[in-house]
Amino acid sequence: MLVVVANRCDATAEALVHCWRANDAHLLSCEDLSRPGWRHCLGDPGVSTAVIGSRLVGIEKITGVLSLLPCVTADRLSHILPEDRAYVAAEMMAFLVSWLSELACPVLNRPTPACLMGPNWGSAQWVHAAALAGISVRPIRRRVVLAADPLPELSEIEPATVTLVGDRCFGDVDRTLAMKARRLAAVAGVDMVAIHFDSPEADARLLGADLRPNISSPEIADAILETLERSRRC
Amino acid sequence: MLTLLWGLGSEGPLAAVLRELDRLGAPTSLIDQREVLDTEIELDIAAKVGGTVRTRDQVVDLAEVTACYLRPYDWQDLSAVTLAGQNSSAWHHAAAIHEALTCWSEITSGLVVNRLAAMAGNGSKPYQLAQIGRFGFRVPETIVTTDPDAARAFWEQHGSVIYKSVSAVRSRVSRLEAEHFERLGDVAWCPTQFQRYIAGMDYRVHVVGAEVFACEVRSEADDYRYPGAHRVEIKACRVPWEVEDRCRRLTAAMQLFLAGIDLRRSHPDGEWYCFEVNPSPGFTYYENTTGLPIANAIARLLAAGTNGLRHTSG
User: Fold this and answer.
1) Contact criterion met (CB below 8 Å) for A185 and A130
2) Which mean pLDDT values do the consecutive 10-residue runs of chain B (314 residues) have?
3) What CATH number does the domain located at A123-210 have?
4) Considering only Cβ atoms within 10 Å of each terminal Cβ, which end of chain A, N or C, has fewer?
């Protein structure tokens, strides 16, 4: 079974699950965490069970997980009493961090305690990490002043994007950028990431990155599927 | 060499560290969250991270900061922000200040006690417990479940069981009693954590860089931080060197420079259990009772900056 962790209203995630139905793909949403059947036994995965898309499954049946949910937020928990939503959201988030971290199957990307999709980095951290790795970047300037005019916006740039999924690489860019993207992904410890540059040329400057690539692209979706299924074949 | 403190200036641990830094004569700046509406920040980020923080009475050059102690409270609870209300310019400003300082603290090359990314592990108790278990400490048998039958079976298997939050929110330990039996059905709404109760003596070990400060805690309460009518007795002590060493290695592996580690030595078998590593400990509760010089150790660590690190590698 493949599991896609996402909000129930995430139409792109739902379309992906539909597309992968022949691969036994199912959506895991926060609503599933409010159904009896979860048993997360620390250090004893053999007796652990999950509730995926309303059905009870043994953990050993799960062969791969795609995480498209950065965190659990109270506003998605309409089935919980309003006064309890913030608390329940924190509990569900904490639970998923532990549960996803303990899975033996491939998880794209492995969660960190602050983000279920990988490192909880904003553009400043991506830019800083890239610069330290010797990658040319567009510096970030930020000013926070109460009631002041914002800094002039940097000119809008249509980014050139390199998408990495496992050992596959997508994007119509100079191959030097693909190598730089791979270096940054290694620094960040992620297997799936979309990295944005200000041009497709070799001397392009890095703008930032997203842990959620364009999963509507059939070739990227296929690469994700291939990465998740690879361990099953090994 | 400049040490930056961020939080509420009157809050116990922050005030204690500020006092000790002052005593050491170490240059220090406090960014008091209560002045958030009078705080301005500029950041410049590439390979180097620079910028300035301006408050009513100071301008801090962030490039000068060699160490930082973080104790930020939820900005939404600051009275000036609450009074201004949601979606006010004050609300957005406070959020932006918090975000900017958080961002800076994650990437500055100075010593940060502790970085938020390193502290985040404490937000998921079972995640952290799995980390702890890899460092030679015993951890209690644990189940997180939405299944009332599984909770009952766990209770019957272990006889005495506690429950506590999975996250760091409302983190309070309670013993599962017979009167809870009917309420067990509520676990279906949200994963709930149950652990085998471990009888024994509590220890709180503070690790500050390479220094270790231990105290023993005697109390009949399920959670001595909320003792109710029970007495709580705290005394400075030594723990065996191998336990000290394990605490140091665990702290270093979690990329923390300060930690408050909750241990229990089980009775009657004498095993050392670890329940939790608190990355932002309210150490003054223990220091005020025992006289252990924890604030002074933190101040010395900060004053030395990254030059003073003697971390045991994990």
Assistant:
1) no
2) 96 98 97 96 95 96 97 94 92 95 96 96 96 93 96 94 91 83 90 96 97 94 81 95 96 97 96 97 96 98 81 42
3) 3.30.470
4) C
**pTM score, two decimals?**
0.94
- Domains in chain B with CATH codes: 2-109 (3.40.50), 141-196 (3.30.1490.20), 199-308 (3.30.470.20)
Which residues make up the CATH 3.30.470 domain(s) of chain A? 123-210
**How far off is chain B from A119, nearest CA to CA, in Å?**
9
**A33 vs B150, B169, B190: nearest CB:** B190
Name the residue facing A101 among B41, B122, B127 (closest C-beta).
B127
Which residues in chain B have their CB less than 8 angstroms from residue A42's CB?
126, 129-130, 133, 139, 141-144
- B304: how many CB neighbours lie within 10 A of its CB? 18
Strand partners, B68: B4, B112
CB proximity under 8 Å: A 18-77 to B: 33-43, 49, 51
pLDDT at residue B314, rounded to an integer: 37
DSSP structure string for chain A: -EEEE--TT-HHHHHHHHHTGGGTEEEE-GGGGGSTT-EEETT-GGG-EEEETTEEEEGGG--EEEE--S---GGG-TTS-GGGHHHHHHHHHHHHHHHHHH--S-EESPPBTTBTTS----HHHHHHHHHHTT--B--EEEEE-TTPPPPPPPPP---EEEEEETTEEE-SS-HHHHHHHHHHHHHHT-SEEEEEESSSSTTPPEEEEESS--TTSHHHHHHHHHHHHHHHH-
Our CA angle for B79, B173, B228, nearest 5°, is: 75
Q: How close B292 gets to chain A, by Cα (Å)? A: 32
Q: How far apart are the first and last CA of chain B?
A: 28
Question: How much is the pLDDT for A85?
Answer: 96
- Among A28, A42, A137, which would you mutate to test the B interface (most chain B Cβ atoms within 10 Å of its Cβ)? A42
For B89, the closest of A35, A93, A146 (CB atoms) is A146
Exposed, middle or buried by CB within 10 Å (0-12, 13-18, 19+), for B58? exposed
| CB B118 within 8 Å of CB B279 | yes
Residue A38 contacts residue B144 (beta carbons within 8 Å): yes
Q: B47 CB near a chain A CB, below 8 Å?
A: yes
Q: Give residues 92 to 121 of B whose Cβ lies within 8 Å of A.
A: 93, 96-97, 99-100, 103, 106-107, 116-117, 120-121
Q: Does B52 touch chain A (CB under 8 A)?
A: no
ipTM for the predicted complex comes to: 0.93
**Measured between CB atoms, which of B96, B100, B130 is closest to A42?**
B130
Nearest-angstrom CA–CA distance, B192 and B108: 37
